[in-house]
Design brief:
The chain is mainly beta. It is built from 2 helices and 14 strands.
């Protein structure tokens, strides 16, 4: 009997639509995260700066509300990694949500999955954490320069309801055309996930700093006001997202 090899071998099991076709770069949904350590800092930025980063028809929060966060992930379907980013408060059809304008992390598999599946604006960067007494400091270094610094304290046990709301979470999914300029896919996507099991959270003080490099400009997001800081430990299950708008349909 002739043995099937090479180009005629059956494709590996998985999504069936993930490159490379013979071995998916990332695992199928649902994916999991365990023991996520998350910092949150509530801030207000210039509403006009925020507006310039929102795709239509999302409307800017008149107060320029935003949330800076970092995640230290020891175990997940993508392996361990660190992450930090900025969520801009916005409105869609009059209802509040957030838009993930910037997200930096140090895991290539997770970058590919986030960009290709949900259009999350993930970029590679070096992310480090240090704990000084009851202060956690996260630093994001990109293009060889400090780009973002987040610091929070954990002063008191808090209720889960006190954490900054980061849902609905909107992202702009863009895939360029192969045969010329323009987008082959352009969608407004709502990221979907759900908590698993018990969590613990603490409230405290927070601070966020933004800088710029020759390529990445975050300085315009320098906070006009800084609110509370929070620290959260919990587990998460990641689900398929929802296409809210197909701009090319």
């Amino acid at each position: 009997m002739m043995r099937t090899t090479g180009a005629f071998a059956p494709l590996a099991q998985g999504d069936g639509d993930v490159l490379p076709a013979h071995r998916s770069t990332y695992p199928s949904i649902p994916t999991f995260y365990r023991g996520i350590e998350t910092q949150f800092v509530e801030i207000n930025v210039d509403p006009e700066v925020a507006r310039a980063h929102l795709p239509e028809p999302l409307e800017v929060d008149p107060a320029g509300g935003a949330v800076v966060c970092s995640l230290k992930i020891g175990l997940s379907s993508y392996g361990p990694f660190n992450e930090a980013g900025l969520y801009l408060r916005c409105f869609y059809e009059g209802k509040p949500g957030v838009y993930n304008s910037h997200l930096f992390l140090d895991n290539v598999t997770a970058i590919c999955a986030g960009r290709e599946r949900w259009g999350v604006a993930k970029e590679f960067a070096t992310i480090t954490f240090q704990d000084h007494e009851n202060v956690r400091v996260c630093e994001v270094v990109k293009e060889g320069a400090l780009l973002m610094r987040i610091s929070t304290t954990w002063d008191a046990i808090a209720e889960e309801e006190s954490l900054p709301a980061l849902a609905p979470n909107y992202n702009l999914k863009l895939i360029p055309r192969a045969d010329g300029p323009g987008a082959a896919i352009k969608q407004l996507v709502r990221y979907e996930s759900e908590p698993v099991g018990q969590s613990v959270q603490y409230s405290g003080r927070g601070m966020a700093e933004f800088r710029s490099t020759a390529k990445t400009d975050l300085a315009p997001f320098t906070p006009l006001k800084v609110g509370s800081g929070f620290y959260h430990i919990g587990d998460l299950k990641e689900l398929h997202g929802t296409v809210i708008i197909d701009y090319l349909a």
